[in-house]
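Attaching the record inline, Q. Sequence:
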Amino acid sequence: MTKPKLLIVEDDEDIRVQMKWALANDYEVLMAGAYDVLRKPVDMDELPLVLQRCVYVAELEQEYRAMQAGARAGGFEDMLGVSPPMQAVFNVIRKVAPTSAPVLILGESGTGKEMVAQALHRRSPQKSGPFVAISCNTIPESLIERELFGHEKGSFTGAQAQRKEHIETAAGGTLFLDEIGELPAPVQVKLLRLLQEKTFQRVGGRPEIQSDTRVVAATNIDLQGSVSSGTFREDSTFAWPWSSSRCLPCGSGGTTSAWWRENSCAAVPSSTASPA
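Structure, as predicted:
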């Protein structure tokens, strides 16, 4: 442990003149590296308390440096994880990111699914392109198709000009569709064609438009249950060659969650992930 630095100043006029720079402002002395300031004659009742405080502060600094080093060792693309399930997710990201394959991320709300999507984007060949994120459950069902695919002039009342939307805005980059399980069935069909054929049509348009946008999606619902209830198309579940990334709450992360609780002062995201 680094020895604490304690400054004791002799209560002598000549020394006070010589150390005017230090005595002028105790704050400057502390900012220069001292843990505390004592003036002679030293109060022997105060000295043990000051020394105890200096040692305590020095130990806190040492623990913080060790914690920061641990955070860097367990970190990956702004995420923390030291458990085997978390490391497995990191390995999946490393493997999948360099491809253009669509990815489906599963997990409860608030567990860091968008962070996984951003990590995939930053490590992909499309990293220089835009990362466009939208929440499907925040857009009215009557508008979601236009918001994704755009529309042609005259395709509906008020469509006075052609409009390019999110799929074309994300060209050359990544489109992140959060809560994809909320998409209405007709939009699922058009999205399925985009994923399989890399083409789509604007609303009211006939030309097939080529797209190099990579699609990463996420949901917090049980898609198999939605298929059984008829709210999600079964063929849409087959369009995701990579759909095994599952994000879990911090309390479910085993070793990772215990590590996080012990290091909760670190300025890092509080989400963990584990593959399905």
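The two ends are 43 Å apart (CA to CA). The first helix runs from residue 13 to 18.

More tomorrow.
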